[in-house]
Specification:
This protein is of the alpha/beta class. The protein contains 14 helices and 16 strands. About 40% of the residues lie in helices and about 20% in strands.
């Protein structure tokens, strides 16, 4: 059954065919490890995990490469401001290396918590400085670079195809995207190599043919992809915010240096939105807006982190997703309900034969996931399957097949199912504790215990155990 994906390069649904028989090269943009990944970031990683699972479900072998940006990502798209890692080090009074290591480990833990399959290759920008310098030298030889006071820049006017990823052949005039840095020839020109500041000492800097400094953010992905996947490769993914600048600049460097667009398919996940107390308007989740939520915040409210993964499945990856705690609690209750039914189905074991009805449902599921990862429709089919007349054993086997894509842990349900009414009392008690209303907190604890449960407070919130 054909896999159809929306290719941002051309803005249309296309049938996916790998460049090599049954092998897929997949590159996904990783985190800048100066702070925790928030749920808006992690929605993108969930979507990319679903894509990878769908490819493998269809019998394809995927080589997945992800970068770790531990240098070169500045606080401004105009290639100005502080390096985010240097800024994080100053904030926490640590070295940049300590900051990078700590938040890389935190990111990996978040991936594991959300059942996101680890990349085959996880590579740091600081481990590929040599390759990035070689790429910049190649661009220099071909006449695409120029030097100004703060670094070496790519001259986008030299590349007629610049902006191939932009929808509707859009054009950016000076000042439309960013403020013009002094000496830049064009608003869209970007830094390849930044010189270290003369008035301060950076912790991360390297010698180069142009002077002491560090690579620009957009160069690392091209160097890494070429090194680990070769060019072109099959699919490049990231958030929708990468389209106009980061991925556009990756394409520019690859075309200029290698004469090739890096990937045949470009897939982008939409923003996750959240309403704040300050505004009734939903806005994207970002650190700069102060509305971020972390995976650890989910546990602190006594919810299963996989409820967030379930919630992501309810919205197509190319649609904006509205987040609220009420929606997450609803997803948590829905997931617990599914777990409860699966625990009952497990008692029947696995079937020895494949019925026509089960085969038909599996084909319908495959058609949904292969149709540009239509997870809302696939999730609806899950609930239809639970209500179907299939024998319990066949139903259970089918759900295990579905979960190869969903990643919700249907085959390994270890935690005791917490009824929604118990969870609601525990959350009310948690709020009472935060308000320092200890009398109410004690009364609610007693109520939980009277209903046959024990609540244990922890640094992550609370844990509930059946007596």
């Amino acid at each position: 059954m054909a896999i159809k994906l929306y290719n941002s390069l051309g803005c249309q649904i296309q049938e996916f065919q790998p460049l090599k028989d049954k092998q897929v090269g997949l590159y996904t943009c990783g985190p800048t490890v100066y702070w925790y990944a928030h749920l808006g970031n992690l929605r993108t990683y969930v979507f990319e995990d679903i894509l990878k699972r769908v490819l493998e479900f269809n019998g394809l072998k995927v080589k997945h490469v992800m970068n770790i940006t531990d240098v070169g990502h500045l606080t401004s798209d105009a290639d100005q401001g502080e390096d985010k890692l240097e800024k994080g080090a100053a904030r926490e009074n640590k070295t940049v290396w300590e900051i990078a290591q700590f938040y890389t480990e935190a990111f990996i833990n978040d991936l594991k918590t959300l059942n996101i399959i680890m990349p085959d290759v996880l590579v740091k920008a600081t481990d590929t400085i040599k390759e990035q310098i070689e790429l910049i030298r190649e661009l220099e030889k071909k006449g695409y670079t120029y030097k100004i006071e703060d670094g070496i820049y790519f001259d986008t006017s030299k590349l007629p195809t610049y902006g191939a990823l932009w929808p509707n052949k859009m054009e950016l005039k000076a000042g439309a995207r960013v403020e013009m840095s002094e000496g830049k020839k064009n608003a869209t020109d970007f830094a390849l190599w930044k010189f270290s500041p003369k008035d301060s000492k950076r912790q991360m800097e390297w010698d180069s043919p142009w002077g002491i400094g560090f690579p620009g953010w957009h160069t690392e992905c091209v160097a890494m992809a070429a090194m680990h996947l070769g060019l072109p490769f099959d699919i490049h993914c990231g958030g929708i915010d990468h389209v106009l600048i980061h991925h556009t600049n990756e394409i520019a460097q690859a075309e200029a240096s290698y004469g090739k667009i890096p990937a045949n398919f470009w897939l982008h996940g939409e923003f996750m939105l959240i309403k704040t107390e300050q505004s009734n308007e939903a806005d994207k989740i970002s650190k700069s807006k102060g509305n971020i939520i972390l995976v650890s915040d989910i546990s602190k409210k006594g919810l299963n982190p996989l409820a967030f993964r379930y919630l992501c499945l309810t919205t197509h990856y190319r649609s904006k997703m509205n987040f609220s705690w009420e929606a997450l609690e609803g997803a948590n209750n829905a997931l617990l309900s599914v777990y409860t039914k699966i625990e009952e189905l497990q008692k029947s074991g696995l079937p020895k034969t494949l019925s026509p009805e089960r085969q038909k449902l599996l084909e319908e599921f495959t058609a949904d996931i292969n149709n540009d990862l239509d997870m809302p429709k696939a999730l609806a089919l899950l609930h239809e399957t639970l209500k179907s007349s299939l024998p319990p054993a066949e139903k259970y086997a089918l759900l295990l097949e579905y979960d190869k894509i969903f990643g919700l842990g249907f085959g390994n349900i270890k935690t005791t199912i917490v009824p929604p009414e118990i969870l609601a009392i525990a959350q009310e008690r948690q709020q009472a504790r935060q308000n320092k209303d200890w009398n109410k907190s004690d009364l609610l604890r007693q109520k939980i215990e009277n209903l046959g449960w024990t609540i244990k407070d922890s640094s992550q919130g609370f844990e509930l155990h059946k007596n």
